[in-house]
Design a protein that fits this description.
Layout (H helix, E strand, L loop, with lengths): L6 E3 L15 E5 L4 E7 L4 E6 L4 E6 L4 E6 L5 E6 L5 E5 L4 E5 L5 E5 L1 E2 L2 E2 L6 E3 L5 E4 L46 E4 L5 E5 L7 E6 L5 E6 L14 E8 L2 E9 L2 E2 L2 E2 L1 E7 L5 E6 L6 E5 L5 E6 L6 E5 L5 E6 L2 E6 L9
Antiparallel strand pairs: 1-26, 2-29, 3-4, 4-5, 5-6, 7-8, 8-9, 9-10, 11-12, 13-14, 14-15, 15-16, 17-18, 18-19, 19-20, 21-22, 23-24, 24-25, 25-26, 27-28, 28-29
Length: 340
């Protein structure tokens, strides 16, 4: 049925972004926890993660097929492409951020801060200055999406879990030491805290505005081993000035029609609108679309909880949505505002 009734116009300003003769298409299903979609303009493919399935998949635009891309993937979560077309990945299992070079080799960008192992990098975004920004919550510190701490660590206080069971890589047993910070990796190799946990607890999705003057960051709920109250399940905006952030403000509390949604991942379009994944009960799960001022203008309803989104396709006018066990695609009347 056209227009698709699950593409909901909340405000008339959303109408130009809804194409009347297109609908939501489920591209593939059968994954454990689909996440981290990112579009390669050079390769004309979408890469995405099945975090719990320890696999990266690739959706090839030319033949519309989904195939295994990397297995094992290190329980990769967020993915992105930088301005040189290189894939960036946040790996839960190895607790690091990596970059795949054009010759197929892999470079570790960050796995420690001040000599301490990272928690489980979650989402990653590239900046035109060559820097890489990423969040480091603790969600990979459990067996289903990575591996728990060694005995006595926050995610394994009683020592009942053996983090080495079933491992194939030589990864030393580690213990969570760091707070849930958001980091900026500089091309010189320097790693610094961009947003401390005290300012944004349990950070998750990240996204720059198309002019790179604003960084949006999602604060989600308590993770394994957290001792504090956890995040607020809201989205915050920060002003970007060089390598530093300031002016923290609430962008949206993710409450629509009185129902609290759980944000996870997001992308901006070229007009500065924010397309945000939303966890919630059936009828409320999917994607919420906000203006740059934080006004909700549209909804995309999915039959599954949505974890993340990305713009792609040859014209960058398709919204890809990783939702629980499935990958969905929708053509929209706008283009994505950043690579990957």
């Amino acid at each position: 049925m056209y227009p698709d009734p699950d593409i909901v116009v909340v405000d008339p300003s959303f109408l130009p972004y809804r194409i009347g003769n297109t609908g939501i298409h489920r591209v593939a299903t059968g994954f454990e926890w689909a996440e981290g979609p990112a579009w390669s303009s050079q390769g004309h493919y979408l890469v995405f993660s099945d975090v719990a399935g320890d696999t990266q998949y690739r959706f090839n635009w030319d033949n519309q097929r989904v195939t295994v891309f990397r297995k094992p993937s290190g329980n990769s979560n967020g993915n992105a492409f930088d301005f040189q077309g290189r894939q960036l990945s946040a790996q839960h299992y190895q607790r690091r951020v990596i970059r795949w070079e054009h010759d197929g080799t892999m470079t570790v960008l960050a796995d420690r801060f001040e000599g301490k192992e990272l928690n489980s990098p979650n989402d990653v975004v590239a900046h035109p200055d060559g820097s890489v920004w990423f969040t480091d919550p603790p969600y990979g510190g459990r067996m289903s999406e990575g591996h728990p701490d060694k005995a006595g660590g926050p995610t394994n206080p009683a020592g009942k879990f053996n983090p080495r069971t079933g491992t194939i890589d030589v990864v030393p047993a580690v213990k969570r030491h760091l707070p849930t910070n958001t980091y900026r990796w500089d091309p010189t190799g320097k790693l610094e805290v961009a947003i401390p946990e005290t300012e944004l607890a349990d950070p998750n999705g990240l996204c720059f505005a198309p002019d790179y003057k604003t960084l949006y960051a999602i604060s989600t709920g308590r993770g394994p081993g957290d001792t504090g109250p956890g995040g607020t399940r809201s989205i915050y905006a920060f002003d970007v000035s060089g390598t530093k952030l300031s002016g923290k403000r609430l962008f949206t509390d993710m409450k629509v029609d009185g129902v609290q949604r759980g944000p996870d991942g997001m992308r901006a379009d070229t007009f500065g609108n924010l397309w945000c994944s939303a966890n919630g009960p059936l009828g409320f799960a999917g994607v919420l679309v906000f203006t740059p001022e934080g006004k909700p203008i549209g909804r995309i309803r999915l039959p599954e909880v949505c974890a993340n989104v990305a713009f792609g396709g040859p014209k960058h006018d398709h919204l890809f949505m990783t939702a629980s066990k499935s990958l969905y695609m929708l053509r929209v009347g706008v283009q994505g505002g950043a690579p990957g």
